[in-house]
Amino acid sequence: MIYALDTNTISNLLRGEGNVEKNFRQEIIQAGNFYTIPLIVVFEIKRWLLDKPSKQLQDFAEQFDLLFQGVENKAEMPVAVWNKAAEIYIALKQKGQLIKESDMLIAAYCLVNRYTLITRNIKDFNRIEGLHFVNWFD
Question: Which CATH architecture has domain 2-76+115-134?
Fold first, then answer.
């Protein structure tokens, strides 16, 4: 199985919040599953880490760089992902249930690649048909 890590999952992992680290160890390290990080998530994490530099955020940045080194394909987002994101946008717009565009791209990335998304954002991602996701925080 391949898991895609959402922005909030990585933030929780770096901060040691919830059960994210425990579940990461169980599912990735012990069970031998793989993980990836969508490039839009890399952008969101880097933006957070660079916004207000501090010693703690510098430490988080180093940890994140190590985490990203473990990603096999460096989380490419081919045209199929962008097309799927457009389809998600239209489907959600027609229902009057739009979510952030970055979340649509993350969902599209997971759907196109058949990855399971790890996120705490159940409220928004639950709106996307066919998306498999798990909450490792609780």
Answer: 3-Layer(aba) Sandwich (3.40)
